[in-house]
Input
Amino acid sequence: MVNYRNAEKKDYCEFVDLSNYVFRVDFEKVLPKTFNSDFELEKITKVAEDENGRLIAGVCVLPQQVKVGDYSLCTNFLGGVAVHPRHRGENHMITLINMWLDEMKESCDMSVLTGLRQRYEYFGYTHGGIQWEYELDVHNINHALRNINSGKITFRPMAETDGAFEFAARLNNDKFVNVYRNAEDADKIMVSYRQHPFAVLEDTNVIGYLITGQDREKISEFVLCRVNDAKRVLKAYFEFFKTEKATVILPDYETELHKELAGFAETYKTGPCANFNIFNFANVIKAYLELKNKTNKLSCGRFSAVMDNQPVTITVDEKGITVENKADKDAVVLDKLGAQELLLTHAGRYMETGVPDDWFPLPVFWYKADMF
Output
């Protein structure tokens, strides 16, 4: 007889051992922000134990507060999905995820996860959002930025720079859109997935930070006090790390950084960011549609729908954006995955809904450091 329950403090070591065995990694090194002895496992984990009291499966959520302009959204990043190989196919993952979903529907605006698209569609998640990747190479730097003075810009590991993690947390939390980061946990957050955070210095002054991988060829987070320093910093990055190429990841709404990079990058592409499960459609639409209107002025129009049994009417006019919890008699009716396909993916423009083409997809984005 399998017992499904909330984890307890005493389960920490056994749960970490189970996760490490299933994924063949050391989670206390890969995700120290979550897997550490001080973390309140009992508040974020549900487990399955067999008749002998041994843990055979577990699923976690990471509660996050997301600021989108003037709005605050409650989200849970679902992860740590581990099932012992001997107990796969027994529906433990399904049971535990559904237990979490029942709770999240009552308290959260949205849930996020990474993983196989179709596997998590069964639970109501849609692969979407917007992520940009600018690919730079040394020829772009040598030619397009030949007259740019990189000055005295250098890079130092944040762990070796006094106050750098607190400074970076403050920069992150001051951004118009952010997943809130506690300064006390910033060192653990920013090294997630074996990433390497660096302070960006001009002389001895910290002017920003970036997070990169071991080979320095992917910059997953690029934050500067002054956006117009971007070209100088990137030129210095190539010189300092002696790299031949680098990819910079950006959310859609960082328009000033897009202006800096788009003019000289070798190429760029956009794609989905993660998997999203929306519980409160009106709240998510209000927050991200207003964000999109600030960065890319939207066409005026009106759209009424029932999304997963939730009535929503959107109006965009000269005064701004209004989202109401009501629907017209002739409103478009969409199930959960259909509504999320409209809101979160480029496929939505091929749906016959009458929505202006520039409204969606919503610019939802998660930095790698904030993922579970």
